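User: what does the whole thing look like in 3D?
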Amino acid sequence: MAAVLATNIVKQFDEVLAVNGITLAVPDGEFIVLLGPSGCGKTTLLRIICGLERQTAGDLIIGGSIVNDIPPRARGVAMMFQSYGLYPHYTVRNNIAFPLRTQRASRAEIDRKVKWAAQLLGLSHLLDRRPRQLSGGERQRVALARALVREPTALLLDEPLSNLDAKLRASARQEIKQFQQRVGVTTIYVTHDQVEAMGMGDRIAVIEHGKVRQVGTPAEIYNEPADRFVATFVGSPPMNLLARNDAYLGFRPENFLPREMVDDGNGGVTEFSFRVDRCEYLGSERIAYGVIEGFESPQLITAKLPPAHVAEESIRPGEWHRFAVRNSALRYFDHDGKRVNRS
Amino acid sequence: MRRVIAKVGKEVAFYLAIAFFVGLTTFPFYWMLITSLKSNPDLYNVTNVPFWFNEPPTLEHFRYLFEQTLFGRWLVNSLIIGVCVVVITLIAALPAGYSLARMTGRSGEAMGIGIFLTYLVPPTLLFLPLSRIIANLGLQNSMWSLVLVYPTFTIPFCTWLLMGFFKAMPVEIEEAAIVDGCSVFGAFIKMVLPLSLPAILTAVIFTFTLTLQEFVYALTFISSSAQKPITLGVATDLVRGDIFFWGEIMAGALIASIPVAIAYNLFLDRFISGITGGAVK
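Assistant: Here's the predicted 3D structure for the full assembly of 624 residues, as structure tokens:
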């Protein structure tokens, strides 16, 4: 059974159509990531799920019952905000206890659950501090503890890592994911960062202009993008696209290699003449930017070369090289950007 | 050496400037104090130096105030009016300011400005229509008329002040409370009110001071001495015939202004954060 089921959700703000008919089922215990550029409607969808916004049309089902007109407090969902929204005048203990107090839990139960959540997230020594006395990472853990303490049907996270610096972000990503697996709570995670999405999600829903472009596992999203938007939004650098007779041919930069490095395998290879304009050395790999002879392309073509295989001298800016892609790694899109099997 | 002199000069100039402004603001208090303690012969002898006592100080004016006039009554009246108006103002302005800050879009902004504009209509124009209302309600010559009328200028001002403060408050705190199990009203009570204490305090002090210093409405609506607030009583009943009894007037003014000055000073820090709360994010 789906813990959260959204059917054909529409949200219209004055003149802006923020969510344009999204249908999404999140099974029990799943970690799903809503991924999209800023302003795509992913946060609005999250706010509709938790009840801070009322959808213009469509039904929302949480834990088996329709909650369209149920206020947030009765939906059994917990939300962690981008800025955490901690209560500055409460101690950490009271912040975590707050959702239990509003449910009129007994004092013994509150004590027990606060202790449990604090221990789980390593906050036991901070219980008597106030939010402003905490570091960014600690605040985030308090917000997580507060969201979890009443064991919600679904945990909603709105860009929870965007306030952390890059180093802390990696460890926090790990922490949230591990923690979610341990507790097994259904989680809906909003982000615009594809690294977070790929690394954390059981499934990813890619959203653009208020519509779901594709839902799938990270591997499906990456390898079998449903359309041009998904292909170019996910992956860094994004999928290369070549325009051909009003349609598009796409391939990932790591599949675009010097001819001699591509074995023919079954299905054969497609060769291109690639002029390298610029090279970037990134330690574990080298990225070559350039153009392909005979094709129009929306952006510069990139090739991701493992440095062990490509000596600095062999690929130099300004030169033409024979590059190739295995045919099995080619993806085709029609003129509307939809994925097609063969062009 | 030259650097030392420059530094000392700078300090001296700084303290001179401060001393000038301190003198400017405290002089009225000094004048009130010294006048209220001077005996009448000292006060009315024009050859005396007016800045210091020429005869021994006396408490005669204060005694006169409390024994021969209704001064105590006026003080109590002012206090009752002040407290009532503060309560009425907060009851109206807190929800109004909050809803204007949070629950309305562009129309709310226009309404906020509109509300503030009503504050700018001078009482000297408004007392005409208001006196009709007071008469119809049978409140003429009663201090309750002032309890009814003063909120007409305190509510708009405080609504506007609180609206600015609420707007600057991060909305996530309330939203978190709503998701965590509060109703909108519950979030307002549990989160917004405690966090906006500086602004509420500012509103209270402003309201109280405005009611304490108001004169025009009191003058037009009230004539019997027992119903007068302190501003009116001091200015009307202490002038007997056409003679200004400066000793009593200054004693009355001093007593009325000291509590406000103390209140301001006690809450100065919170007061400033309340005023500037909406200014900088």
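In plain terms: The mean pLDDT of chain A is 89. Chain A is about 25% helix and 35% strand.
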